[in-house]
Design brief:
mainly beta; five-stranded mixed β-sheet; four-stranded antiparallel β-sheet; 8% helix; elongated; disordered N terminus
Amino acid sequence: MVQEIIDDTVFDLAANNISLKYYVRYDRESGAVTETFPAHSAVKEKDYLEIDSDLAINLLTGIQSLTSVKVDITKNPAVIVTNNCQDFIVTKIDNVLHRVVDKKWSNITNPDIQIVYDRKAEELIFKINPSIKEMSWPGEKEMIFLVTGYNDPNQLKEMIKFSLDELCAYPQRFKCKLRTKFSIFTRRLFSNYTLEIK
C-alpha cells in the first residue's frame, strides 16, 4: 500500500485516487538528465519531463545511473532515450596516481590512451583509441600527466594538461627533453594506458 506523510497526516494515495507521477530534470542544451523526482501533479516548467514509474524507480534506486539516459531534445515533444555511450561515461576511476606501464612490459594490445615518446624529436605524443574517440563524454574531462623520475612521482620533470575534447580532436604533442629514464603518472579517466619509447 502506497502511503505518504504530508503535514504530519498519513494519506493513502490509492484510496484518495492520487496517482504518483515521476519526472526528470534535464539540461535544455545537452539533454543530460540531472535529477529524478516524484510529484502529484503535472510539472509546468520546461526543464522537466514525465517518465514511466519503472524507469523512475530504477533511476532512484541506482539500478540505472542518471547518465544511462538522456532527453532527446531534437524531438517535439522531447522524449527520454537510452544513452548509447553509457558504457563509456568518463569518471575519475580513483584519486590515486597510477604509473603508465611501458608497452614492452604490458599485455595491453588496444589501449584507451597511448603515449609515445620520440627521443629523436624530443616529443611526447598522446593519442586516444579511435574506436572510442567519437563517443559523447559527460563527466570529468581534464587530463593531467606528470612526467617524473623513473618510478618516482615526487621527482617532477614536466606537468602536462589538456582536455579530453582536445585529445579527441587531434593527438596532443608536447616538446619534452627526456634523455634519462622516466615515468609518467596520471589519475586515470580510462582503464588502459600504455607508454612507448622510440
